[in-house]
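Students often ask why we bother encoding 3D structure as a string. The short answer is that it lets us treat folding as translation between two languages. Here is a chain of 124 residues written in the first language.
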Amino acid sequence: MRTAPDLTIDDSPIVPVRAMLRPSTYRALAAVAKEKRLEDVGAVLARLAELSLQPKASRRVQRRRRTPEEYAAIDARVRALNEQRMSDGRIAKALGLSQPLVSQRRRGMGLESPTPRPARGPKA
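And here it is in the second language, the structure alphabet:
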């Protein structure tokens, strides 16, 4: 029976690695390095490597759930803008919410879409 290879992490000195990056990727990583006050793109890549070795549970970010009062305020604003015949996308942009959330809340309140989709399928 074959055994799995030993995959322990070696904490010996860092080994330089040459990476070929597209200019756009390098610029994006350089912006992240500047934002995070890191030395350079190499530091960003090192940090990403560290994160990839951590268990997923420790990387997970807990999102704060909205309270019933917050949902009530969202519903009131969605209802008011829906009465003005605004589309779900425009309502979402005006309120800083996602379009699926606006659609979900509107349907949950039993409101009709002011901009229904056209019928699909072949014309008869």
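Translate back mentally: The first helix runs from residue 23 to 35. Keep this in mind for the problem set.
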